[in-house]
């Protein structure tokens, strides 16, 4: 029975307790009988206060409590939760199930009941969340008195993502059918969020995704339409364009990324609100920190090498290929393998994202003097480096050799982005560095990467002959430093313009446009639970709470969402892609000519 905490699914739980189910039926009868008895006893109490009678009442009462506890336990062991209780991993992408063994069975059951069923109700009756009518009016007044800016260009892709359903619209049947690909279903009705859970999601993805939607509702009160959305929280798109039969409609499925060959609808991923497992902060804070870090060094002092740091063990062929390019003399490239297991132990101090833009270097110095003399000498020699640490290695590594090692750090000139198992959340941090981003032929797109234009705000690197292609980019940047710097700055600027305000606006418009296509009125399924801020926080552990609270929207926005540009001409997307392709082809030509000249 306790295996439940080990992540056994609901169905397995029911099978293994078949006998107890029988018991449970009997228990239910006993319960109602006892309740009747109790009621009767209560009214009879003043007339016959005998000793025997009290014993019977006390006994019944105790059994009732025991039974209640048993029932609650049983009920809880069948309740699916946003942190993954009683849910199995998605069958299309398995991962180790979560353990809930740190809590006792009863406290777990209590928590499940408390957070799933009681917290939102209590919050609603206390009524802190609902604005009064007066406040609402006032807010509307404010909202309409300011002219919102126009949404950035990439919002146009909302139309492309929803194109398949423009004419025929979306029916309940359609949503029902999409369930086979979904981990959960989100239904928003009158500003309330309901979630129907089918499978567990890795780490805290689901929690932070739901949090983002709750914040959206809070930011634009009364404005988010009723909607019914199927969602998958795993990485790879599944609705293949090629496999959608002629005349039939693709299934509408939301996830964090898509590709040109898929119909999956991209939605901002959880990391915009924080990723506590790897110490990534909410996007606005994280961007500020990265930008501040990047300004500590001027471009000219940055090191003229391409730099990648990350985890190659994620079933990503491109990351494996990248390992071969680790030669600063031959390819101008340095690859650092990130040891997640090791860093998890040290709280990810060394992999802090604001450090990601940095290039680390170890230097030896065996001149005379004190440690301070060494430091000064190294600093003078390098000028551009910020000295991080000095190790006096006499007594440690190189026994007998009086050298000292300095770990220095500077900004990388060129930052490589390599996709992981699918898209990688790291792209937005790499683009924020102010270094020239080298993107290795990305196959996946998330909601904002459609705004990227090769040579304008990134450099396109080919996945064929990868090392040579990176080397070419490095050489180009070294011979055209001001152009390379300008591209890096534009990428950083683009990421600055993608503030959380714009992320919420994107969610708002995507949901609104999608909702217009529904040919039915959304109703939460009977198995769905309401999720509110309080219930979500109720499930969060201390660290998650800290991250969630930091990314909370403080109040309704006084400015309305940006204005969505009218639906573009259908040719727009073809032309856009053709133009991108042309620029990339042009870079490939330059590369080929350069290679031909060498050989
Ligand atoms: C869950 O617990 C089991 C047994 O204690 C352990 O073998 C497994 O690795 C744990 N899984 C996770 C994801 O921590
Ligand atoms: C959708 O599925 C639910 C449960 O699976 C069912 O009750 C409902 O009738 C279905 N709706 C349609 C329109 O098929
Ligand atoms: C769909 O139609 C196109 C032509 O309109 C045809 O080439 C293709 O084979 C069809 N695909 C399927 C799966 O029927
Ligand atoms: C790449 O080369 C550097 C310097 O030789 C080395 O420190 C680093 O561990 C190498 N990275 C990988 C992933 O092998």
Automatic annotation (TrEMBL):
The chain crosses the membrane at residues 51-70. It comes from Gossypium anomalum. InterPro entries: CAP10, O-Glucosyltr/Glycosyltrsf_90. This is Glycosyl transferase CAP10 domain-containing protein. Residues 1-22 are annotated as: Disordered. Keywords: Membrane, Transferase, Transmembrane, Transmembrane helix. Residues 223-521 form the Glycosyl transferase CAP10 domain. Residues 1-10 have a biased composition (Gly residues). The lineage of its organism: Eukaryota, Viridiplantae, Streptophyta, Embryophyta, Tracheophyta. One of its GO terms (molecular function) is transferase activity. Belongs to the glycosyltransferase 90 family. Pfam families: Glyco_transf_90. The keyword GTP-binding does not apply.
